[in-house]
Amino acid sequence: MPQSLLPRQPIPALDVALLSGARLSLTAGDAQHFTLLVFYRGYHCPLCRTYLSELNRLHDDFTARGVAVKVLSSDTQERARRATDEWSLDRLDLGYGLAEADARAWGLYISTGRGLTSTGVEEPARFSEPGIFLIRPDLTLYWANVQTMPFARPHFKDMLGAIDFVLAKDYPARGEA
Prior knowledge:
With 177 residues, the protein is of the alpha+beta class. It is built from 4 helices and 9 strands, in the order E-E-E-H-E-H-E-H-E-E-E-E-H. A hairpin with a 4-residue loop joins strand 1 (15-18) and strand 2 (23-25). The protein starts with 14 loop residues before the first strand and ends in an 8-residue tail after the last helix.
């Protein structure tokens, strides 16, 4: 069973390469209100393609709300580049090379590759399953969703509505007990 992170508690460190040549690391004050951290399964996942395409389309809606968007996987640089190009992710700077130990520190589930997917892309030998986190500027966890499967992920449009409510009502993080 993966480690569980608690709301209102510090998040694990994170530092991976981005396709732009910069680094994806989390530092205090990265965003006005939240950092949206999205771990996706990788280039092999057709559901990730649809999911990240939605996030790409809504990117500016998140940033307009003071939310920094960060996306990463355990993919290699080449696979992350193919995802960016083939999935038309012009608004997202994908992080790649997530180590299994870091994925586990975030409480992500790890899967073993099972050959070709329905789209004919080989799964990596090991990769993390999806996880989504909203992180406060002080680097404490606000909200988390970690999954064992690629199906039935939270919709980004719903998350925008939730963020609007949270900001308007100063709604506290829940689930810390």
